[in-house]
Amino acid sequence: MAGELTTDRQISALKPAAKAYERKVGASRGLAVRVFPSGSRQFEYRYVTAGGVRRRLVLGAYPGLTLAKAKIAANASRMTVLEGADPVGERAKTRDRLRTGETLNELAEAYWAAAAVGLHGGRRRPKRVISIQRERNTWKLHVREPLGDRPFVDIRRAEIKAFMRELVVAGGYAPATIATVGGILHAVMGFAVQEERIEINPVTGLSRPLALTSRERMFDDAGLKVIRNVAIEASQPRIPGEGGGQARLEPVMGLAIQLLMLTLTRRTEIAGARKAEVDRAAGLWIIPSERSKARHPHVVPLGTRCLDVIEMAWGLDPDSPFLFPSPRSSDQHLDPHAITRAIARTCERKGLPLGSPHDVRRSGATTLTGRYGFSRLIVGLVLGHTPKEGAAVTGVYDRHTYVPEKRKALEVWANHLCGEAPPKVCGAEVYVGEGAEGPESSQALAAYVEAAKARAMALCAAGDLHGAVLGLCMELSRRSGTAGSHLDILARGGMELAISGSKGGVEAWVTGFR
Predict the structure, then answer these.
(1) DSSP 3-state of 430
(2) What's the CA gap between 263 and 360, in Å, rounded?
(3) CB-hemisphere CA count at 13 Å for 262?
(4) What is the pLDDT of residue 176?
(5) Mean pLDDT to the nearest integer, 482-491
(6) Distances (CA, A) of 166 to 158, 161, 226
(7) How far apart are alpha carbons 87 and 75 in whole angstroms?
(8) pLDDT at position 72
(9) pLDDT tens string 341-362
(10) Is there a contact between 74 and 28 (Cβ–Cβ < 8 Å)?
(11) Once rounded to an integer, what is the mean pLDDT over residues 213-228?
């Protein structure tokens, strides 16, 4: 047939074009040469599977693969296709197996490798190293033995249901622990769906067999005092030959627990604190986004008591980059789990209900909102929460502008923790924050609101719609007469209008702000 290739010389003479093109090879059904714009050439064998799917099998590049050898390879491929095989499909399956493995354990390893660079799905951003390590530990404890060696493509919903039920009945684990196991299993199988190894996630709807209950455990004032006193005692240098070492915490641990209690930060943030993050002159500790659970920089104001603790911790090992170096090695930081164990051990020895570092945070947040009247917005910023964790507006506010409010809140909390006199009390409520010396009259608050609205309208006129919404919300959040929940609802509506670019909508929102 005219145009078909029959010799190596003809193949060598093929010229590249702007787009790739094909030329059939004579006397060999399905064999063709594809020529690319770069000038490279390759042999391909075209066939149709038993299911009617058209395939293109790459045999090799020319001239590494000669015409004679290409014909032999095409004939061999034709025989396998006639026997019902699908060479291209088998190659794809082999690549999939190499990418995700065959067993559930191999799939999990592929998932964590993808998660490290953000290719695991979900939020499409890399998971933190500590998060991956926690998932690995949970997997090792609960999933690896009972399910890990099973081919994951064969795992069905009934098997997942039985596995989760066994965790509940035989394991006796808390609902939150079971939900954690189920969540990791759901994510791993979801990765298999994403990689097109399976079509449906068999864990969907089965990861939480028990209803989760809100964590309400807190320390009372007496319990907080006991833990803090133990931490203070432990932070004092040991006397050579001093006995009772088993019952006393290490100095670095005592200081770490003190700073955790004073700042209401997370145990991981405390344990991994670097000296470079602390500005002692400005009284600020800036936790970078890569170390913050919320993935944004968390600015922590440091009062006098915090700075005293930091000064003592600094002196434990001046050459270590970490504020709380590991007792084993100064180039490693304190183990966050060790802080949890230390607080639990203290509770047990002092006859307190079992507690954790997170219970300290919960106790502080509840005290600041319930006893001292701080808004949820400010307390959420103190805790370093994201919009989903705390007040909805915190995600769009400039967190640095709230340093004075956060400093005031932590000062009140430190005074409470140390048993010192609280701030000025007006009736049954403590009023704190800018411009809040006591209960405001309705007239004064109305005048303040109108002035703030006028400033917001001026920003609208200048075209700064986001600034108008944020500025008005920020000003009103500092007033003691503004309900935090009411402000959250209004802020969501205003931000939606600002994002849409509706100037008239934002102006109407400002005008109707109550």
Answers:
(1) strand
(2) 10
(3) 28
(4) 83
(5) 59
(6) 12, 9, 40
(7) 13
(8) 94
(9) 999 999 989 999 888 899 999 9
(10) yes
(11) 83
Statement: residue 395 has pLDDT above 50 = no
DSSP alpha helix (H) spans, 327-441: 336-349, 357-370, 376-383, 403-417
Distance CA 184, CA 163 (A): 14
| Three-state SS letters, 222-291 | HHHHHHHHHHHHHHCCCCCCCCCCCCCCCHHHHHHHHHHHHHCCCHHHHHCCEHHHEECCCCEEEECHHH
Kindly list the structural domains of the chain, giving each domain's residue range(s) and its CATH number in brackets, ordered by start: 8-95 (3.30.160.390), 101-194 (1.10.150), 221-415 (1.10.443.10), 441-511 (no CATH)
| Residue 458 φ/ψ region, left for φ over 0, alpha for ψ in the -120 to 50 degree band, beta for the rest | alpha
For 3, left (φ over 0), alpha (ψ -120 to 50), or beta?
left
3-class DSSP assignment, residue 25:
strand
pLDDT tens figures, 152-193: 999 999 999 999 999 888 877 878 889 999 999 999 999 999
pLDDT the model gives residue 441:
62
Report the b/e string of 306-326 with b at 16+ CB within 10 A.
Answer: beebbebbeebbeebebbbbb
Q: Is the pTM of this model over 0.90?
A: no
The predicted structure's pLDDT at residue 380: 86
Q: Which of 101, 130, 129, 135 is nearest to 116 (CA)?
A: 129
End-to-end CA, the chain: 84
Q: Phi, psi at residue 185, to the nearest 5°? A: -65, -40
Q: Which backbone phi and psi does 325 adopt, to 5 degrees?
A: -70, 155
Give which of 119, 143, 148, 115 is closest to 129, Cα–Cα.
115
SS (H, E, C) 281-338: CCCEEEECHHHCCCCCCEEEECCHHHHHHHHHHHHHCCCCCECCECCCCCCCECCHHH
In Å, how far are 108, 118, 184, 366 from 148, measured between CA atoms? 9, 23, 13, 42
Rounded-to-integer distance, Cα 64 and Cα 70, Å: 10
> Which SS3 state, helix, strand or coil, does residue 151 take?
strand
Burial letters for 100-128: b for 16+ Cβ neighbours within 10 Å, e otherwise?
Answer: bbbbbbbbbbbbbebbeeeebeeeeebbb
d(C-alpha 150, C-alpha 332), whole Å: 38
Query: What mean pLDDT comes out for the span 462-472?
Result: 78
Q: CA of 90: how far to CAs of 81, 87, 324, in Å?
A: 12, 5, 54
How many alpha carbons lie under 13 Å from residue 395 in its C-beta half-sphere? 13
Return the amino acid letter for 71. K
Of the pLDDT bands very low, low, confident and very high (cuts 50, 70, 90), residue 215 is low
Cα–Cα distance, 14 to 40 (Å, whole number): 10
**Mean pLDDT, range 191-199, rounded to an integer:** 87
Q: How far is the C-alpha of 139 from the C-alpha of 105, rounded, in Å?
A: 9
Indicate whether 28 pLDDT > 60.
yes
